[in-house]
Each structure stands twice: as C-alpha cells, then as structure tokens.
C-alpha cells in the first residue's frame, strides 16, 4: 500500500492543506505545534474506519470551533492492483466518494463506497499490520502487537527458509479451529452437540430407572394391601372396646352432672336468703341515717344563722369605702385628661416647629440643586466649545517634543559662524553688519560680502540640511495641529486643556451636589413638598388660635404634609365621650422657638405623667376596695344560699323520717332484720355441707376419665378409617397401573438408552478427533512461529545495534539498572528475546539483561520503533503498509537519534515512511524529503 496524496479541509485548525508523497523513502513533515501534523495521521484512520454519518465525539471534535462547516478528507492510494481516490465529508452534507482508476475505472458513493474501500484493504493489505505500524502522538509506549498479522507471518516464513504459509494452510488451520469450536469453547469446555448427546443418553437411562422404580412400587403396594386387611380387623376390635369404655364413663359423668345441679340450686337459695338479710339490714341502716341527717340539718341551720349576723357590719363598711374610692378616681381622671390635653397641644406645637425646620431645609436643598444645575450647564457649554481633551493635548505635546528634539539636534550639529566687522559695509546674506563681533548658526547657505574685497558663501553640509528639513517637518506638523484645534501655541493649548479639566471637575461636583440634595426625588417633587409645607406652616398658628378649647384632643392640628416627618402626638387618644366631661380654661400662647416649645412640652409631659400616676393609684385603690366589697358580698350570698339549703334539707329530712316511721315502725324493722339473718345462716350451712360431699367424690377425675374414654374412641375410629381409606386407594391405584403396560414401556426405554449411548459415543469420537487435529495443528503452528520468530529477532537486533551503539555512556534502564550501553560496536553486545506473541520480552546490552518493562521510557520507545521498522523491512513491499510516526523519539538523546536516523533511512529504501514532527533537527536523514507546514 502506498499513499500518493492527502488533502484536508476544515479539519480542526487546518482550513485547507494538501500533501503529495513519494512512493518510497522517508518523508519528514515538519511544522510548529498546532500546524496540523497530527491531524494528517488521524485523518488517515478516520477516512477508512468511520462512516460519514457518524456523530461520535471523535468526529465532532475535529470540526473547527469557529465555523459550522463540514470536515473533508481526501486520499489517493495504490494497493495491490488497485489505485483509487477516496473522499469523505463529515457533519455538513455528509458524503463518501470512491473513484477507482486501476485495474478498471469504477465510481461508488455512500455506504457502498465505504464497504468497497474496506474490501480492497482487506484483499490487498494486512490491516492488523497497518494498525501496528502507526505510532501516534501521545500514544502508549508499549509492545507492538504482531501475533495476528498474516502478512508478517508469511514474511517470517520466507525469511526463515520455510515454505510460505499460504492461504490454504491458514484455511486448513481455521477450518480445524471451526470444527473444534463446534464441540468445545476456547477454554476447553464442551459445547451443545456434546452436552445434548450426553443429556439424551442420561435422560434415557433416567427413564429406565423411573420405570423400574414404578414396577417395584407396585409390588410394594400389593404387600401393603395384605398387611392393611389384617390391621383393619384388629382396629375394629379396638373400636368396640373403646366404645364400651366411653359409654361407662359417660354414665358416671351424667350422675356427677345431676349432683352439680342440686349444688347450684342450694347455692341460689343461700344467695337469696343472704340478699333478704342484706336488704333488711340496709333498711335499718337507712332509718338510722334518716335520724342522723335530720339532727345534722337542725345543727347546720342554727350555725348559719349565727354566721350571717356576724358578717353584716363588715359588708356595710366595705360598700362605703368603695364609694369613696370611686369619687377619688373621677377627680383623678379629670386631672389626667386636662394634663394630657396640654401635652398634646405642646406636641402639636413641637411638630409645627419641626415642619418649619424641614421646610427651610427643603428650600435650601432646592436652591443648591438650582445653582448646581446652572453651574453644570455652564460647564457643559464650556466642554462642548473646548476641543482640547487629553488625547489632543498628548498629540500636541508629542509634536512639540519632536520639534524641540529636531531643533536641539539642528543646533548641536550646525556650525557656528563668528564675524568681527572692522568697518562698515560688511554684509551677511544682504544684511549689513555693524562694526563689532557677531555670531550666528549656519543651518543654510550663508553669504558674507566684503565690498570691493570678496564674497564668501558658507554651506553647512548634507547632514545639517537633513536635520533642518526634519526640524521644518516637525514645526509644520506642530503648526498644523495648533491650526486644526484653533489655538495659537502650545501654552494656549495647555490653558484650554486646563479650562476643560476644570469644567469637567465642576460638572462632576455639580452632579454630586444634585445627587446628594435630590436623593430619590426630583426637583418638581421637592417643589411640591415645599409648597405643601409652606401652606401647612402658615395655617397652623391660625388654626391653633381658632380651635375650640373644650375639644382640643379630638380637634388636633391636621397631620403633616406627605413626605414630612409625622408626630405620634397629632392623633388624640381620647374618645368623644371622654372629651365632653372637661373644658380647657385658656390655652398657652404658641412659643416662638423650638427650645421653648420643647421645654413647655417636657413640663406638660411631667404633669401628665404625675396625673396619670395619680389616676392609676386611684384606680388601684378603687379596684382593691371593690374587690374587698365584692368578696364580702359573695360570702354573704354564699351564707344566704347555704342557709336556704339547710332549711330545705332540715324540712326534707323531717318529712322523710316521718314518712318512713308511718310505713314501718322502728321496732318492727329491727325484728324483720334479725329473722332474715337467721334464715340466711341456715341456707349457707346447707350449701357448704353439699359442696363438701361433692368435692369428696373428685369430679375432675371423673371428667378426665370420661374425656380419655371419648379420645380413645375417636383415635380408634380414626385409625380404622385411615386404614380403610388407604386400602381403597391402593386397590384403585393397582387397578389403574395394571393397565399401563409398564413392563413393555421399560423394555422400550432400555432399547432407546442403548441407541442414545451409541450416538453419544459417535459424537464424542468426532469431538475427540477435531480436538486432536486442532491441537496438533496449533502446536505445529506455534512451533513454526517459534522458528520464524528468529528472522524478526535478527532484523530487530541488526537495526538496534546502530541505535544502541558503542559511544553510549549511560542508559536509563529503569529500576536503578546499571549502565547498559556497549563499549564496542561489534556483534554480541546487543540481543533481544521475543515471546510467543512476537513481543520483545528482554533486552541484553553490555552483558546486562533487563525485562522490557524495566527499561527507561526512551529505551522502550526506541525498541518499539525499531520493531515497527523491522516489520516494514520483512513484509513484501507489494503487501506492506506505510510506516506513520507522529512526533516520536522525544525521549531519545542525540547519539541514539543518529543511529535511529540510519534505521529510518534503511527502511525508507524498502517502504514508505512518513515522519510528522515539530522538531526536524532530531531527524538528520540526508535522503529524506522534507515538507514544511506553516
């Protein structure tokens, strides 16, 4: 396989790029980071392996982040007899296009094009080798997986001098493997054909065993029926005996029940006589209680009469004290209302002075805002008329500085002309000089004339002319800037800029003043508040003077205008009913200042508090007196009620006692109670005698014997019934099973067991044969692989000796390994060992052997790259694939880089090698073609 051309469009940061590659040799594609080198290697994988309809993360990641466009990859490839151009576009308008030019022209699109491209690769190259010979940037530094590469196996066979393992040989091994896999899993466990044959044989054997067990069960059931017949006869005798015993015990139990009935009747008689005696005793006790209740009622009534007489004077005194306290409370309430009215009046006066102060503050705020706005308008006009801002002043300053520098350079480098005029008539540039000494700077042609003697022209030279021209240019630019912004000179520009800065500060200060005084209001809102406050302040003295004095609390001044602070005292706490009972005799005049009003309010507040304290004290005294009077009245009422109740109780007790004696005299009632007690004692003694006699007969034992007899009868009957049921079920079962032909079924099952056994043995023999063939071929193949791994090892060692050459002084062998670089470049100083998977297992250098994983990162990377180059050298060029290396050998020192360059150059003579790197100085390969990416 050869890559001739690759083109990318909109691939990550690559907008468009096309590379044309030679058929053989080393191609070094160099460029800085993020120039798209790794994108080339990734694109070669994506174009063959991923469908154009894919929306996977790997596809969306290659789209440019700043444009919503499709990603396009196009490659031109020749492999085997085929040469084709393959185009694939992802994400936007997905498309796959395959155009074959050899061996015949063919064009395919979409999914068929993708499948045809993979078919060509599978037909012409070893895709496993194609994957193994790619080393991408950031990929793992690990073993090269080569054991599944068919092309490499054939190449190693040829290199080992053996017959090439062609497709037929590999096909026989594959077919043997397929046949083996019919019967066994890769781990050696039997598959379905073996398990099913064994299962069928086992099922037939189990069927034979079940039928034989069924026949044996029939024989057992016949013997059981014979035994059950004898057992039923014995159980029938046991039932008869148990029935006789149960009847005898039942008769004893019936006699016991009759005696218990007699005992119950005697108990009822005893209880009845006891109840009669209890009733008689209760009647006597009730008669005694009636007499006692009548005597107690007489005593209670007399005691209550004496208590009522004692309480009357105390109640009269408490009523008088309560009346006096009520009069004192009315006087205190009147005084409290008067002081509260004065306090509320002074509260309103204080509110009036507060509103006047607030009115003045609002006017001052409005005046400050108006003045600030006027200053702000003037500053804004100044800013609009001034054009000299910071940028303009900076430009003018820079132009002035340039002019000063040019003037200074011109002055420093211009020659100085000194003329001493000894007489009149000497001229300089046509200007007559007075006698004496004259000095001037010569920055242009100057002519000194001595009439009648000579005319001298002084030329300053080319450098001075250039400085003068530069000075004139700087002066012109400065003048042009001054004219552009209409200022006479630089000082005027600075003055204009200072005026502008002052106007900006004034505008900023005015904005702060307006913001501070307005707050969250507008100027119109402040004006409205000022107007409302003015009307309220002007109206208050007149309203205060004209307000009726007998209703001051309820007619307090109206509340402050909206937005002004309000006083809680502007609302009266008195109701109209309370305010009608008093009248203010004269109102103090309105104080002219805030402090006087506050002092008057403080005095009124103290007076109101004292009056309130007096009112609260009078009210507390009234409550105490009222409480004491109420308690005495309640006690008097309680005594009166108790007295009425005692009288009623005494009359009722006397009536009840008289009625009871008229119904039954006291002596007759006592005689009846004594007779009832005698009858109750006699009935109780009779019941106790009968109860003792019945207990001596042990009734619980009689009941236990009767229950045991009934239980024994039930057990005997149940056993007999169970035996009879079992005999009937066995008889029916034997009749049914006798009709099934179990003997014939058992013989058929034995025949089927023999047949399935033979089939299972045949399947096992085929499985054993397939296993033997597959294992034999596998062992032979492994033996051949071990034999042809020798050519691969030799090629790797030959290339690696140039890399690990004698002038290496140290090597990071890993795990603290000693220096493993050879001191000479002869043979035998370097060796490797391959495992069964054709991976490097150990490396020997300078007599020291280390496992691959113990080597340093650089050494593992170098061995991995050498292994890939060895594979490329061994495979037939027509069957091989390009070697693509993306930014490798980053851990390799300069000496080994030189050896690696020789290995790469040798491989390039046989294969196509593509190196992608941002450090081209690492690869000094004279024959390599270089492509530089920008």
Overview features:
flat; 934 residues; 18 helices; 64% helix
Short description:
The protein has 934 residues and is of the alpha+beta class.
What does this structure look like?
By secondary structure, the protein is an alpha+beta fold. The chain is 64% helix and 12% strand. The chain has 18 helices and 20 strands. It has helices spanning 37-49, 57-60, 110-124, 127-132, 150-159, 167-183, 192-385, 390-413, 462-484, 490-518, 523-546, 576-579, 594-663, 666-696, 699-737, 742-803, 857-874, 894-908; strands at residues 2-11, 14-20, 25-30, 71-79, 82-90, 95-102, 106-109, 134-135, 416-421, 427-428, 431-432, 436-441, 446-450, 454-458, 830-834, 840-845, 848-851, 883-886, 912-917, 929-932. The strands form five sheets. Strands 2-1-4-5-6-7 form a six-stranded antiparallel sheet, covered by helices on one side. The chain has a five-stranded parallel sheet with strand order 8-18-19-3-20, with helices on both faces. A four-stranded antiparallel sheet has the order 11-10-13-14, with no helix packed on it. Strand 10 (427-428) and strand 11 form a beta hairpin. Helix 7 crosses helix 15 (699-737), helix 7 crosses helix 16 (742-803) and helix 16 (742-803) crosses helix 18. Residues 160-164, 549-557, 566-585 and 806-827 have low confidence and may be disordered.
């Amino acid at each position: 396989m050869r890559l001739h051309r690759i083109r990318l469009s909109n691939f990550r940061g690559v907008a468009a790029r096309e590379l044309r590659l030679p058929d053989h040799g080393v191609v070094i594609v160099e460029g800085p980071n993020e120039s798209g080198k790794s994108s080339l290697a990734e694109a070669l994988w994506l174009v063959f392996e991923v469908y154009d309809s894919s929306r996977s993360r790997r596809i969306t990641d290659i789209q440019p982040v700043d444009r919503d466009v499709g990603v396009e990859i196009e490659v031109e490839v020749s492999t085997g007899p085929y040469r084709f151009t393959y185009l694939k576009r992802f994400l936007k308008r997905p498309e796959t296009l395959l155009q074959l030019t050899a061996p015949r022209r063919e064009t395919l699109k979409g999914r068929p094009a993708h499948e045809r491209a993979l078919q060509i690769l599978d037909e012409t190259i070893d895709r496993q080798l194609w994957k193994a010979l790619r080393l991408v940037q950031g990929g793992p530094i690990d073993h090269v997986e080569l054991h599944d590469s068919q092309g490499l196996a054939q190449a190693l066979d040829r290199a080992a001098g053996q017959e090439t393992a062609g497709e037929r040989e590999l096909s026989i091994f594959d077919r043997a493997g397929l046949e083996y896999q019919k019967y066994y899993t890769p781990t050696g466990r039997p598959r379905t054909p073996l398990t099913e044959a064994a299962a069928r044989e086992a099922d037939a054997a189990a069927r034979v065993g079940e039928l034989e067990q069924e026949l044996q069960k029939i024989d057992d059931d016949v013997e059981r029926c014979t035994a059950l017949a004898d057992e039923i006869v014995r159980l029938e005798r046991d039932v008869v005996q148990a029935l006789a015993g149960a009847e005898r015990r039942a008769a004893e139990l019936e006699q016991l029940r009759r005696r218990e009935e007699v005992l119950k009747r005697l108990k009822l008689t005893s209880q009845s006589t006891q109840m009669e005696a209890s009733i008689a005793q209760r009647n006597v006790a009730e008669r005694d209680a009636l007499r006692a209740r009548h005597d107690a009622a007489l005593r209670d009534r007399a005691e209550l009469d004496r208590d009522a007489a004692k309480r009357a004077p105390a109640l009269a005194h408490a009523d008088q004290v309560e009346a006096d306290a009520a009069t004192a409370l009315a006087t205190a309430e009147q005084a409290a209302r008067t002081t509260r009215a004065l306090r509320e009046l002074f509260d309103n006066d204080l509110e009036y002075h507060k509103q006047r102060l607030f009115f003045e503050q609002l006017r001052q705020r409005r005046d400050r805002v108006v003045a600030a706005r006027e200053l702000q308008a003037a500053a804004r006009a100044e800013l609009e008329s001034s054009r000299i801002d910071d940028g303009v002043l900076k430009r003018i300053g820079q132009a002035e500085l340039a002019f000063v520098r040019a003037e200074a350079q011109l002055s420093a480098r211009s020659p100085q002309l000194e003329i001493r005029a000894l007489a009149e008539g000497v001229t300089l540039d046509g200007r007559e000089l007075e006698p004496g000494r004259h000095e001037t700077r010569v920055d242009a042609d100057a002519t000194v004339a001595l009439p009648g003697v000579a005319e001298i022209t002084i030329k300053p030279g080319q450098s001075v002319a250039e400085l003068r021209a530069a000075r004139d240019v700087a002066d012109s630019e400065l003048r042009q800037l001054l004219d552009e912004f209409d200022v006479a000179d630089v000082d005027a520009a600075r003055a204009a800029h200072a005026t502008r800065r002052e106007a900006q500060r004034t505008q900023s200060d005015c904005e702060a003043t307006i913001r501070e005084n307005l707050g969250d209001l507008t100027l119109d809102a402040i004006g409205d508040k000022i107007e409302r406050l003015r009307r309220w302040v002007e109206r208050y003295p007149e309203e205060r003077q004209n307000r009726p004095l007998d209703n001051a609390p309820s007619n307090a001044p109206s509340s402050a205008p909206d937005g002004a602070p309000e006083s809680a005292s502007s609302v009266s706490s008195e109701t109209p009913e309370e305010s009608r009972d008093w009248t203010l005799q004269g109102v103090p005049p309105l104080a002219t200042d805030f402090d006087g009003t506050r002092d008057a309010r403080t005095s009124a507040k103290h007076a109101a508090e004292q009056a309130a304290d007096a009112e609260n004290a009078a009210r507390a005294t009234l409550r105490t007196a009222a409480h004491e009077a109420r308690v005495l009245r309640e006690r008097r009422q309680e005594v009166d009620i108790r007295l009425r109740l005692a009288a009623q109780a005494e009359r009722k007790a006397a009536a009840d006692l008289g009625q009871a004696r008229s119904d039954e005299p006291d002596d007759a009632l006592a005689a009846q109670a004594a007779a009832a007690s005698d009858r109750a004692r006699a009935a109780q003694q009779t019941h106790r005698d009968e109860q003792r006699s019945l207990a001596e007969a042990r009734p619980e034992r009689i009941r236990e014997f009767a229950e045991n007899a009934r239980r024994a009868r039930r057990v005997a009957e149940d056993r007999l019934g169970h035996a009879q049921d079992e005999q009937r079920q066995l008889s029916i079962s034997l009749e049914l099973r006798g009709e099934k032909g179990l003997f014939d079924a058992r013989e058929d099952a034995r025949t089927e067991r023999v047949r399935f056994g033979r089939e299972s043995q045949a399947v096992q023999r085929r499985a054993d044969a397939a296993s033997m063939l597959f294992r034999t071929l596998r062992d032979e193949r492994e033996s051949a692989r071990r034999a042809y791994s020798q050519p691969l090892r030799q090629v790797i060692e030959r290339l690696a000796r140039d890399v690990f050459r004698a002038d290496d002084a140290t090597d990071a062998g890993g795990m603290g390994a000693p220096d493993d670089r050879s001191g000479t470049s002869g043979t035998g100083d370097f060796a490797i060992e391959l495992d069964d998977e054709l991976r490097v297992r150990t490396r020997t250098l300078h007599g020291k052997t280390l496992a691959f994983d113990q080597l340093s990162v650089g050494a593992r990377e170098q061995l991995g790259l050498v292994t890939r180059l060895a594979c490329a050298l061994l495979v037939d060029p027509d069957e091989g694939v390009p070697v693509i290396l993306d930014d490798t050998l980053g851990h390799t020192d300069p000496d080994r880089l030189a050896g690696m360059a020789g290995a790469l150059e040798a491989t390039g003579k046989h294969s196509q090698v593509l190196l992608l790197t941002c450090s081209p100085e690492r690869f000094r390969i004279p024959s390599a073609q270089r492509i530089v990416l920008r």
